Amino acid sequence: TTLWREDLGVTADPNDLLLITLLSVIPDRESDSAECSIYRDSAVKLAVAFAFIKTCGPSPSIWDALNSWPMRVSPDYLALLKQNNPGALLLLSYYAILLQPLRGEWFLEGRVIRLVDEIARRLRGNCSTQIWKVFSTMREEYFSY
User: pLDDT in tens for each of the 145 residues of the chain?
Assistant: First the structure.
């Protein structure tokens, strides 16, 4: 199999529940801001990553997980993440879902849940009620064990 793909061969479905959920946290009054544009682009790329990982079957590789999203986001998104931007942190928490099947790999052992816990620590009290609700719902559904 090919380790690296320029084209993932999938697109984001605008009716995808994940994408709708991620886009729902953008306040209407800010929907035209540069920050929201960066967030929207990264959210669409994340929805594409989820669609791509589904095509990989039950055992995606670490290369599939890396190639699907983190290597495709813009430097502007990474700058938001570095600033602990709540939207950027929310997207990273959802990316952790894609890492779940790989959590048994020696280099990821325990790290996926620690990533989600650290995101929770950074978001708590520093984000909108809506972002916290979306994050908490995802955390409970995928990371409560």
Answer: 556 567 788 888 989 999 999 999 998 777 678 999 999 999 999 999 999 999 988 888 899 999 999 999 999 999 999 999 999 999 999 999 999 888 888 888 899 999 999 999 999 999 999 999 999 999 999 998 6
**pTM score over 0.85:** yes
Render the burial of 88-123: b for 16+ CB within 10 Å, e for the rest: bbbbbbbbbbbbebbeeeeebeeebbebbeebbebb
Given its phi and psi angles, is residue 92 left (phi above 0), alpha (psi -120 to 50 degrees) or beta? Answer: alpha
Residue type, 36: C
In the numeric block, the tokens 């993440």 are attached to: 81
In a 13 Å sphere around the CA of 137, the CA atoms on its Cβ side amount to: 9
Gap between the Cα atoms of 121 and 57, Å rounded: 33
